[in-house]
Amino acid sequence: MGGHPKNIIFLTCDANGVLPPVSKLTFDQAMYHFVSGYTAKVAGTEIGITDPVSTFSACFGEAFLPRHPYVYAKMLAEKTAQYDANVWLMNTGWTGGKYGVGSRMSLKDTRQILENIHNGSLEKEEFENVPGFNLSIPKNCDGIKDQSILNPINTWADKDLFKNTSKKLASQFINNFKKYEDGTPEEVVKNGGPNISGF
After folding, report:
1. b/e per residue, 16-37, with b = 16+ CB within 10 A?
2. How many Å apart are CA 116 and CA 147, to the nearest integer?
3. In the predicted model, what is the mean pLDDT of the chain?
4. Mean of the pLDDT values across residues 106-123?
5. How many CB atoms are located within 10 Å of the residue 10 CB?
6. CA 17 to chain centre
7. Terminus of the chain with fewer CB atoms < 10 Å: N or C?
8. pLDDT digits (tens, 9 = 90+) for 161-172
9. What residues does 66 pair with on adjacent strands?
C-alpha cells in the first residue's frame, strides 16, 4: 500500500562499543549481517539480564525461520537491487568503550542520523572504510555536533584496546556464521563479514 522502501535499516545494540553508529552496507554485507542478526540482550528487555550480553539471531528472528537464513537474505538482496534501496546498519549501543566504560549512543544523534537517511542527505556524503569489519561510514552527518562519533575508534581513549575488542567481536561473528556457511555462497562470507587480519 505504501510503495517500496528506499532505505532498509538493521538496528543493533553493540554493547562492545566498536560498531559505528551508522554504516552503509553492500549487497554482500547486507546478506551477511541479516543472516548474523547481531545485537545485545539488555536489562529491561530481557528477563534476568542485568549486564548486556552479545547475541545473534538469524534474520533478527531465528526462532521463526522454517528455512535456511540465506534464503531470506537472498530475497532481501534481490528486492533491494530491484528497487534500488539502500541498506544501513545502525548501532544504538555503546560508544567510547564497552558497557561499563563507554556511554550509550545519544538518542538525539540517532534521530538525526535517521532523519538524514530518510531525507537522502546521508547517502550523498563522502564515505570511508572501517578496517576489519570493512564497513563504509560517512565522514560527516549534518546536524550532529560531534562528528568524531561516526568513526568509533575516535571515541576510545585506548586505541589498542579498541582494536582488541573489535577483533574479539569479529571472532564472535565468524564463529557464529560457521553454522550457516553450508548453504551460503562463499563470496557472501568473504565479502560481507569481518576480516581478522584487517585490524
Report:
1. bbbbbbbbbbebbbbbbbbbbb
2. 14
3. 93
4. 97
5. 20
6. 12
7. N
8. 999 999 999 999
9. none
Q: What angle do CA 98, 103, 105 make, to 5 degrees?
A: 105
| Listed residue (169, 175, 174, 176) closest to 57, CA to CA | 176
Beta strand pairing call for 94-95 and 38-41: unpaired
Strands (E), 51-96: 53-56, 86-91, 94-95
pTM for the whole thing?
0.92
Half-sphere exposure of 155 (CA within 13 A, CB side): 23
Read off the pLDDT of residues 135-155 as tens digits, 9 standing for 90 and up.
999 999 999 999 999 999 999
* Average pLDDT, integer, range 62-80: 94
Angle between the N-to-C axes of helices 69-82 and 27-36, in degrees from 0 to 180, rounded to the nearest 10: 150
Give the integer Cα–Cα distance in Å for 39 and 43: 13
